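### Sample
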Amino acid sequence: MKKLYLIMIIVLMLGSANAQSIALEGRSAIGLSIGTFLNSERSSATAAYNVTASATGFTGNLFYSNWLEENLALRLSLGFLNGSAEVKVDGWNTGQSASSVVPLLMGINYYFIDEEPGKVRPFAGITAGVYIGSEAKNSILQVSAKSESVFGIKPLAGIDFVLGRHFIMGAEAGYNLITDFKDTIGGRKNYSGGEIAFRFIYLF
C-alpha cells in the first residue's frame, strides 16, 4: 500500500502542476483500474492433504468512456471482482476447485468542474449490470461446472488528473450492491462489498 500511496502523491503533483483548461467533450477513452476488494474474506490454509487459497482480494476492470458533455461521461466496464482456488486430497481422491465473479456494468460519471475545467476533476457516478459467478470442480470421480448471473449496482466517487491530451490517472472508491446467487460460488452466495482502485486512462 505504501507504493500505491507514493504513486498517488506523484499523480497529485503532476496533476496540480498545470491547471490549464483541457476539453474532453466528444472524446473517448479506454482504461484500466486496479485495486482491492474490501470484502474478499481472504484466507490461506495448509493441512494434511489439504491446501486452500481463497479470495484473492484483487479487483480490476477494463473500461471504455465517452464524454457526452464536459462534465458527463458514459462508462462501460468488464472486470474481475473476486476469485478463489482450492485443492483437496482425500485418500485416493484428489479434487480441485476454482471460482470467480465477473461484473459487466454500464453507467455514468458526473464531474464537478468549473466552466473552465482544469486538470483536477472530482467525480461521482453509478453503474449497473450483471455479476457473473462461475465455479468449476474436478476430481478423479467427478467433473462439474456452473455459472450464474445476478443483478447489481455500484455507486462510486473518485478524482481524475488529466496529465495531457492523451493520459489521465486517478483513483476511485465504490460499493458493489449485489443480489444473492441461488447457489454458492466460491463458498458464498453474496459478494456485496467496497473496493478501492487506481485508474489509468488513454484518451483518443
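Residues 67 and 73 are 4 Å apart (CA to CA). This sample (Outer membrane protein beta-barrel domain-containing protein) is used throughout the tutorial notebook.
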